[in-house]
Amino acid sequence: MYPFFFDPTMIIIIPALLIAVYAQYKVKSTFNQYSEIYSDSGLTGAEAARKIMQNKNITGVNIKKTSGNLTDHYDPKNRVLNLSQDVYSSSSIAAIGVAAHEAGHALQDAESYKPLAMRASLVPAANLGSSLGLPMAIFGFFIRADFLILTGFVLFSAAFLFHLVTLPVEFNASNRAIAQLQTNSYLSSEEIKGAKKVLRAAAFTYVAATLVALANLLRILLLFGLGRD
């Protein structure tokens, strides 16, 4: 029997956590690098996002400035495109790239992109699973309760599914962003390269988050196996 404070499955999660830490470092360093390089067009992030939506005849989406760093996100429920302070009013390559990516989500919403709707529907279950799934499984392991471990597995599966569905949503939004920036010449060909690096770094964080979720799901399965030994 293991000591109460010792989780023998932690070895599974450590590599994924290291990748996640590196992904966060990479996105911040890449964003900071291209935040200091300004586009020739002079468009701010908010202006670029607005033009992209106008080109696709999308109306009724508000663009708001939100606090924090890299807190940019699109809210499909309220149809609000939230841009952080460093993106909203900046004309840097990084700002335009990130704003275009968020506008890409608005384009997805307008076209009823199924993975976006699926991700939105998974949010409540994913929040519940991510907060309760793993702790419940670990507690079940230490008190030898298979039912709790399996319940934790089911709950956390929703969180993993959310991360899995997020991948095509984010990659598709970035592809839409780059296509719009190129087609409408909001960035030059050389500037596009920088925007792609920023968006690739951001996409890496979603891949890393999915790997962490997968590792935790495998941990729960291992806890079940160890608990039955």
Automatic annotation (TrEMBL):
Transmembrane segments: 6-25, 122-143, 149-169, 203-226
Signal sequence residues: none
One Pfam family named in its UniProt record: Zn_peptidase_2
Domain of life: Bacteria
InterPro entries to which the protein is assigned, alphabetical: Zn_peptidase_2
The entry's keywords: Membrane, Transmembrane, Transmembrane helix
Official protein name in the record: Peptidase membrane zinc metallopeptidase
Species this protein is from: Halanaerobium hydrogeniformans (Halanaerobium sp. (strain sapolanicus))
